[in-house]
Amino acid sequence: MKQTRLLMGMPVTVEIVDRGADDAIFDEVYAYFTHIDETFSPYKTTSELTAINRDKTPRESWSEEMAMVFLLAEETKQATGGYFDITKPDGNYDPSGLVKGWAIWNAAKLIEKRGFRNFYVDAGGDIQAQGQNAEGEKWSVGIRSPWNADETVKTIYVTNEGVATSGTYIRGEHIYNPKAGGAAANEIVSLTVIGPNIYEADRFATGAFAMGRDAIRFIASLQGFEGYMIDKDRVATMTEGFARYTEL
Predict the structure, then answer these.
(1) How many domains does one find in the chain?
(2) Which helix (H) or strand (E) holds 73?
């Protein structure tokens, strides 16, 4: 059973292969994503994050989820040497580079708690894949060309892993280098990271993207992660173990 709904300004697709999947589990998952959007959206005037940015609400009055995300963001900032930073040049907070992967991972755990083992959750191209697809094989994930959204430059095959891509082909230049006065990170145009789960893959894809061409070396230094990078000169570089994911 498979459904796609537009949430958080992007298509969110959930496919559950196991028997017993019904509308109720999909409604539960999409209700969770709606809650996340209403809490963390920097664009919704009614979100908790907007209230924090507008009124500088003291931390002791934040929700537990908000406090957790800020804690995870600080951990990620330290792990990336400061390249991941949710404080934007204008002083406002925007944890989107971490929240999406975190939400996908939480949604996947929600599905698992309902007894399902073979499924995937895809929000805007960031994916958590569990088990096998309907053909009993690994899930296939296409990496889009940064210059032609209809072209797939690589297809990878994963199970029980997360895949996150940071790039400029959907939202333009939206990742900034906090070490360069908030200048747009534009040395590379696409960075795909495969990690043990989508939360880990997403946060490191965002942080590494801001490093420019050093991104692939950073991903290679992380145990249990692989990456595929395309720079602005159309040169692709991959980590040593990435190739094994291109074989079914």
Answers:
(1) 1
(2) helix 64-79
- Residue identified by tokens 């804690």 is 71
The whole-number pLDDT of residue 169 equals: 55
CB 198 within 8 A of CB 98: no
Residue closest to 84 by CA, chosen among 99, 103, 66: 99
Query: By residue range, what is the domain housing residue 198?
Result: 2-246
Nearest to 123 by CA among 9, 2, 13, 1: 13
Count other C-beta atoms under 10 Å from residue 13's C-beta. Answer: 16
pTM: 0.93
Residue 99: name the closest of 215, 244, 21, 198 by CA: 198
pLDDT, tens digit (0-9, with 9 covering 90-100), for 174-219 = 566 666 555 556 789 999 999 999 999 999 999 999 999 999 999 9
CATH code, domain with 109? 3.10.520.10
pLDDT digits (tens, 9 = 90+) for 75-93: 999 999 999 999 998 899 9
